[in-house]
Amino acid sequence: MIDWIDSYETRRWQSTTEGTVRYALLGLGWWTVDVALPAIAASELGEVTVLVSSSTDKAERIAAENDVPRGISYEEYHDGVATDAYDAVYVGTPNAYHLEYVETAAAHGKDVLCEKPMESTVERAQRMVESCAAAGTELMIGYRMHTDPAVQRARELIEDGFLGEPVSVRGHNSQPLLEMIPDPDQWRLDPDRTGYGTTVMDLGIYSINTTRFLLDRDPIAVQSRMASTHDAFDDVPDERSASLLAFEDCEMVSTASQNAHEDTRLTITGTHGQIELRPAFHGECGLHLSRNDLSIDVTHETFDAERETTELFEYFSDRLLSDGDIYPDGRHGLMDMRIIEAIYEAGETGDVIEL
Amino acid sequence: MIDWIDSYETRRWQSTTEGTVRYALLGLGWWTVDVALPAIAASELGEVTVLVSSSTDKAERIAAENDVPRGISYEEYHDGVATDAYDAVYVGTPNAYHLEYVETAAAHGKDVLCEKPMESTVERAQRMVESCAAAGTELMIGYRMHTDPAVQRARELIEDGFLGEPVSVRGHNSQPLLEMIPDPDQWRLDPDRTGYGTTVMDLGIYSINTTRFLLDRDPIAVQSRMASTHDAFDDVPDERSASLLAFEDCEMVSTASQNAHEDTRLTITGTHGQIELRPAFHGECGLHLSRNDLSIDVTHETFDAERETTELFEYFSDRLLSDGDIYPDGRHGLMDMRIIEAIYEAGETGDVIEL
Question: Considering the entire predicted model, what is its pTM?
Fold first, then answer.
């Protein structure tokens, strides 16, 4: 047990401690500036050398404020300005803008870490995968949960048979979006920028993707029900959603809402044990284990969204520097897009949608 | 707050402290003998005067062991033996035997507290309601959660607006049935005695019924997926099940399994708060509240299945002695049977089944 405790944070995926990946960051919202930027600064293998924003002035100002050498505009980025100054690109813009920035990165021979969900539609996500494949550049999707120590340890326990056979998975992710960002015209509520909808795209994806990672299997069919009642959600179908996903030999239920009290959970009940992440997403991640008559609660006092993002970037840098395989690559992200599209279709039709 | 704490266990439904209801108990399994019998002994308004079992000898032996005055056989019960010795009947037999014992009780003018689920099919549950209505006898279904203090306080908080508007409900109820009762031929796995199936009938019903009680509304449509893989579950469709229930303005997901690690939960997330029962069912009931930035965990050290059952009987006795309305009456239980039948139909067809 002491070995398990002392190695709780160990990066078992780490291949190298040598080298540096220089990042250009695109989409300077609060996440990129307040979380991703300090997260990369705290990493060992990454550094931020370029910030990209709507205007050169704005980019240069934010760069100066954050000790980043260069600030350039999106236009300059597309034109190939400062390509000598960065090795890889982080895309943190609204969903529907991902493709154009990834295509440019591929054209410049740059590797990409792109935020989830990959894009606004399956078709655009597919084009993203193809452009990186054609250019021979790496594409990773920013699933932070994969490198969270709680999730890493949970996956190992499951591989070692802790659960017996998985029986049921329950995921939940809710937040009060309009309290967090008090703007009814924000991009997450605009189908042109968010894609199929808001709750499954932005929140449900955490439960679904983390389950795929933990169980190492993909859903084969989905059912769903969703609704919007608040005015601000008029243009998206899913102010709230409830989905039922069939995996081989086990079922998952996933609920999410952008207009609810915050709660994040992922619980996997097996024939012989149970693993729960509570809270599950967005930084803090508590690991609650039970098997036979024993319950164990593991919490990590200093782990937060920034630390989680440091792990994400360190993993990507490590893969690039060691030329290793990337688990959540473009094809992995594309599967999520297909699942999400099926959930929206199931919500609209009431049908079971096979994958 | 101190008033709330000190009145946590208060029976706000109580109308009388006078009088005694004399019970005959049918179906002397471990639940009836080890839980219901001491639970009634611990109540103020009830006493057990007759035990009914397969043979007179067995009934008399168990009666003597438990200081109960009379023991009679099922045959004697049907024949009207000892009807002067009891006022009401508790039916704790396998599901498919409920109807015949309730019909006899009605014929003898006895009131009935019948275990949930009411019967094996909607049609038989309907006949049960009709026979009691025709005889003018009371019929209550044994939903222990309604009189659990945690559930009572949760319902009051919801009525007072604690949640804002309910957004999503997640219920889960799993247990390792074959470890608890190591017999593959037990009645819960036999469709002739259990009815439509085992997991939704026996476990899912807790999540569904408690939600109906807490939200004071009924589902309007269901979707479901279920499967059996273990040999012992060959004759029932639902070794495990996952269901999606649509209520007006909110959705519920409910998972259950008779072949899994034990866990019981019910979580209702609203626009402004969250109420969780964890554990939720079978005795202990922890109440976990969150609203704004505050979380409150309420646990009750001495509450268990027996105490919960005492409350159930005390409520029924109180209603009989004061001639008050019974909340979980036959029609209330019949609605659960309709919901459960729809869930099995949805599981078989993949369709959305409207209620």
Answer: 0.95
